[in-house]
Amino acid sequence: MRTLNLYGKQDIRFEDTEKPSIEKADDVIVKVKAVGICGSDISRYNKLGPYVEGMTFGHEFSGEIAEVGPEVTNVKPGDRVAGCPTLYCGECESCRKGELSQCEQLTVIGARHPGAYAEFVKLPAENIVPIPDSVDFDTAAMVEPSAVVAHGFYRTSMQPGAEVAVMGCGNIGLLAVQWAKIFGAKKVYAIDIDDEKLQIASEIGADELINPKEKSAYDQIMEITGGRGVDVAIESAGSPITSAQVFALAKKGGEVVFMGIPYADINIERFYFEKIVRNELTVLGSWNAISAPFPGKEWDTTVHYMSTGQINVKPIISHRLQLRQGPETFEKIINRDESFGKVLFYPEIG
């Protein structure tokens, strides 16, 4: 079968790999219809991280059940599905407490287990997420990143009527704009230095667009809110700069949620750090998308709101490509040869 396999730093190859087979009674093999590039894929491709040389990459996917093990009863061949790509041990202290996203052995397919940049991918039956006919395969390929964002919002104490600032309008930020509305935000501030991304944020529900190139996001939000700030500030850019600046956006007693992953050290100016102390902020980290009972409410809720159209990923998708275009696409992304939103590959085409 056709796959994209990671061999080393900036070394991903389009190859033929043996198709997975049923080995365990709860195995499920999915024919991949659409698979997306995650920001973590870009980081691992560019700098490496936990991976096995030659491993089939990728973890955000949708598809159709091709084959199931003898003990699988929740799905059958032909069913339309997405997949939770996360594997947990079930034995560590965090797992025993039901805090699965904090599992000591947490891993995702595409690192130490074969991933979804492939014509077929294998997962345990409990990782399979059925999708209704009203959710197309392109949309379902983004169930996983959407569940990641939902996980972060579930960690907050946000109430209907809250005001939310989303710092960074990449794929995660654009999903966060929509989840903020679902969680009851009366006003969402979208912040980015890219006007094209801000325009997409406006299309999917952002109420205020803030470009901090001319005036800081802090100054603009303080002007709009009369010096109050927002109830919840989301850091979704994963930038060392915004990871410091986000503390100034929340009101006294507000919450700051980190969904982005900065791949560099963060130096926090005194002005921003003091906001944590003086405003008595609650600072939340959010990791992965699973909870108990596995895979968690993040997944069912995502599928529901995708089926109603309240999670709309179509404006976020910028490229629809054949899997064989993977190597050149990854190179273009890290070289910033063009603007990329969510990139989807179609393994069965071409």
How many beta strands in the DSSP annotation?
18
Please provide the ordered H/E string of secondary-structure elements. Answer: EEEHEEEEHEEEHHEHEHEHEHEHEHEHE
- CATH topology value of the largest domain: Quinone Oxidoreductase, Chain A, domain 1
> Which structural class do you get from the secondary structure elements?
alpha/beta
Please tally the helical runs, counting DSSP H or I stretches of 4 or more residues: 11
CATH class of the largest domain: Alpha Beta
Note the beta-strand portion. 25-35%
What is the helical fraction, as a range of percent? 25-40%
What is the count of distinct domains? 2
Q: Unreliable runs, pLDDT <50, ≥5 residues? A: none
Q: Rough shape?
A: globular
Largest sheet entry:
7 strands, mixed
Integer-rounded radius of gyration? 20 Å
Pfam family, one: ADH_N
Family: Belongs to the zinc-containing alcohol dehydrogenase family.
Keywords: Metal-binding, Oxidoreductase, Zinc
Protein name: Galactitol-1-phosphate 5-dehydrogenase
Give me a quick take on this structure.
Belongs to the zinc-containing alcohol dehydrogenase family. The protein is 27% helix and 27% strand.
How would you sum up this structure, described in words?
With about 350 residues, the chain is of the alpha/beta class. It folds into two domains: about 1-145 and about 290-345, Medium-chain alcohol dehydrogenases, catalytic domain (Quinone Oxidoreductase, Chain A, domain 1, Alpha-Beta Complex); about 155-285, NAD(P)-binding Rossmann-like Domain (Rossmann fold, 3-Layer(aba) Sandwich), CATH 3.40.50.720. It is built from eleven helices and 18 strands. The chain is globular, with a radius of gyration of 20 Å. Belongs to the zinc-containing alcohol dehydrogenase family.
